[in-house]
User: Fold Relaxase/mobilization nuclease domain-containing protein from Sphaerimonospora cavernae.
Amino acid sequence: MIGKVRRGGRAAGLLAYLYGPGRANEHVNPHLVAGWRDPAELEPPLRPNGKHDLARLAALLKQPSAAIGEAERVWHCIARAAPQDRELTDAEWARVAREIMHRTGLAPHGQEAEAVRWVAVHHGDNHIHIVATLARQDGRRPRISNDFYRVREACRAMEDELELRRTAPGDRTAAARPTRGEREQAGRRGWDEVPREALHRRVAAAVAAAASPEDFLGRLAGEGVRFRLRRGDGGQIVGYAVALDHHRTAAGTLVWYGGGALAADLTWPKLCARWRRTPRDELREKVTAAARAACGEEDFFRRLAADGVLVRLRHSEINPGQVTGYAVSLPGRTPSAEPVWYAGGRLAGWLTLPRLRQRWAAGDRGWTQAEREALYGEAAEATSAAAARLRQDPASAADIAWATADVLRVAAAALGNPVLARAAEQYERAGRNAYGRIPSPSPEGVRLRAAARLLALAGIAGGRDTTLAGVALVGALASLVASVADLRQARQQAAQAAAARQAASELLTQVTVSAMPPGQAQPVRLRGDLPGQPDASIREPRHGW
Assistant:
């Protein structure tokens, strides 16, 4: 059972629609099943022409607002059973309506004479409409904060009581879905993708690959996404909104979406929480970016200095004028007053000065196949370590699960793999913490995000990378996602467990197909699939990446 909440300004107009024929004559036998008083007493009488006289009921609903001198405000909730459910009786729908009004606090049990006035209308199609005016009969204002989530709780309670099909909890782990109007607009204008979904995909990809707020905004601009920032009194960024050039109102102005309107974990504070880095990770990212952009040794060290990196050169003992290596540090990033230095080779094998000189001499700023495989190997190692930690220490689970979503998105782009891209979309809900909470940071989560940012620095592979290192990375990701699914299932987080299972099945299928000749690949069934969902756990093999 699902519930949807809307708000308006005229109970009379809404009642006229509910008791009318509907937009396509779909309303059959409209009548009250519940209300703040006996529904038989409140039921609108029939006029000689066969239509209902709604004037008295509309006036009764409006009275509390008029008594306190406020404009009429209407709370409207649609509660609908699943298509597979049986037809509920009027008495059962009345029970549903009362539970919703009780849990939202609009009309708690036993407060029929003091709370808001409301009625529930049933006109077929196994659903009801609850109409309430937002003014209590005792003169106080009702509280409606988080009413959508309280409605979700009431619907799930009724599913258990009435033995109906179970639905996912309203725990803010699902991404925001486009409205019906947004989908219809996209269809009319011939857009391939609804703007809200397109923005969600692009923003999620940008933040997964970004190392800082500046990097994130730069990646948004590179994706063709307009953005504007909201700043606090001190000038600090406290929020943002995004838009697409082609999505405008009738007046020609851009339609903006705040990060929270795309997904619960895309608000600005939650984005900043994803950019936690160790000094070593930050140095490796900065040194790698400078090495790729530099045209020579002097340019490389100049770029590091411009990026705020301290550089210390190592000279030859035989020839003091000859530079044989370097070390880097970040000012103010260590507890002690003395900086901690990292040699280039300690950051990554391809960042030693001799290796960089070879690259600059060859005039090659791209990534070699060996370097790409080294990146994939590091990412696979971080992924395997996170999976092991997840099984040993569930306290780190929330941050590891959240970071896994970033690795999946970036790995899909780095490997040029559409199966990974699909798995990343399917996994997203499994990675989010319930009710939008920011998980405590864990070393494994920080390491996973560092691996994702390094993969992003490598860019998209030329062609579709099917090397052994790439396959090993996908296999490690499949193991990690399956571990997340097990953990979510153990914690009775069914919707998140199902999302992780589906993503893991995609990844396991890809590993199977990559490791076997085309004629021998078989569908993959993931162990421990959720009961009642056999079809979601079988994937036909897809050859090639």
